[in-house]
Write a structure and sequence with these properties.
about 50% helix, about 280 residues, alpha/beta
Length: about 280
C-alpha cells in the first residue's frame, strides 16, 4: 500500500511513541489525524507534522468515550479524506502486583488497551473493505508474547490484542484491507519505558536490551506498506525469551526470573506503590 496522500489516524499521538509513528507516516506522504486527550501537546505535534509537508489535524479524544471515538473518525474523514490507516497506539500500563490493583485500574486498562482498539477497528474497517484498501496497525507489546509478572493486566490486554489482530486479519483475506500488530520491547526515550525510568530510576536488565522509538515507527511504516502480519521490535538478546514462553511456558517463566525481568517489574511495582521505600 502506498502512503502518499493517504489518511492516517494515530491515537496516543501527543507523546511517547505516537509522534514518532506520526512522523514516520508523514515522511511517506500520509496526512495525519492525531488523537489524544492533551489538546495542547497534540497541537504542538500537529505543527511538527505539518512542517514535514503534509496536512495534519489535532482531534482531542478520549478513546474510551464512544462519542469522542466517533468524532475522531468523522473529523479525520471530513478534514483529510477516507481513513486508509488506523494506528491504535493509545495505552496505559499500571505496573503493580495484581492483588494491589483496584477495580478502576483494571477496567480502565482493559478499555484503553483493548476495547477502544477493537471499536476503532470496527469503525474504520467497513469503509476500508468497501474501497478495497486500508490497514489497521495495533501497537501491542512483547508483554503480549511473554506473560509479565507485576504487569498482568497490561500483559493480558496485549495478548488479547495480538490474538484479535491475527484473527481479524484472517477474516479480511482478499478484501484489500489488512491488520498488523507491532510488539515492541523496552523502548528508550519514549512511551511507557521512559516513564518507568523517569519515575522509578529502574532500568531494563541488560539481557533484555532496548530499542529506539524510530525503530517502532519504521516497523509501523513497513507493516502498512508491505501488509506485514506481525513485527517484533526488540534486540536479538530478548527474542529467546519470547520463543521459550511460546513453546515451553515453564521454561519461559524460569527465564523471566533468571534474566532479571521479573525482578525489574517487581521493583517498579514496589516503587510505584511505596513498598520499595
Amino acid at each position: 500500500m502506498k502512503l502518499q496522500g493517504a489518511t492516517a489516524i494515530v491515537t496516543g499521538g501527543s507523546r511517547g511513541l505516537g509522534p514518532y509513528i506520526a512522523r514516520g507516516l508523514a515522511r511517506e506522504g500520509a496526512n495525519i489525524a492525531l488523537a489524544a486527550r492533551d489538546a495542547e501537546r497534540l497541537e504542538t505535534v500537529r505543527a511538527e507534522i505539518e512542517a514535514l509537508g503534509v496536512r495534519a489535524v489535532a482531534v482531542p479524544t478520549d478513546v474510551n468515550d464512544r462519542d469522542e471515538r466517533a468524532n475522531l473518525v468523522a473529523a479525520a474523514e471530513r478534514e483529510l479524506g477516507p481513513v486508509d490507516v488506523l494506528v491504535n497506539n493509545a495505552g496505559v500500563e499500571p505496573t503493580s502486583a495484581f492483588a494491589d490493583l483496584d477495580e478502576e485500574q483494571i477496567t480502565t486498562t482493559v478499555e484503553t488497551n483493548l476495547t477502544s482498539c477493537l471499536l476503532l477497528m470496527r469503525a474504520v474497517l467497513p469503509g476500508m473493505i468497501e474501497r478495497g484498501r486500508g490497514q489497521v496497525v495495533n501497537i501491542a507489546s512483547m508483554a503480549g508474547k511473554v506473560p509479565v509478572p507485576y504487569d498482568s493486566i497490561y500483559s493480558a490486554t496485549k495478548f488479547a490484542l495480538v490474538g484479535a489482530s491475527h484473527a481479524v486479519r484472517s477474516e479480511l483475506r482478499g478484501t484489500g484491507a489488512g491488520v498488523s500488530v507491532i510488539c515492541p520491547g523496552f523502548v528508550d526515550d519514549a512511551g511507557m519505558y521512559a516513564d518507568m525510568v523517569e519515575q522509578t530510576h529502574i532500568a531494563a536488565p541488560a539481557v533484555a536490551g532496548t530499542s529506539r522509538p524510530e525503530q517502532v515507527a519504521a516497523a509501523v511504516v513497513r507493516a502498512v506498506k508491505d501488509d506485514v502480519a506481525e513485527v517484533i521490535v526488540t534486540p536479538l538478546s530478548g527474542r529467546p525469551l519470547a520463543a521459550a514462553a511460546a513453546v515451553a511456558p515453564n521454561v519461559g517463566r524460569l527465564m523471566m526470573r533468571l534474566t532479571g525481568v521479573e525482578r525489574t517489574f517487581k521493583q517498579v511495582a514496589d516503587a510505584r506503590t511505596g513498598k520499595g521505600r
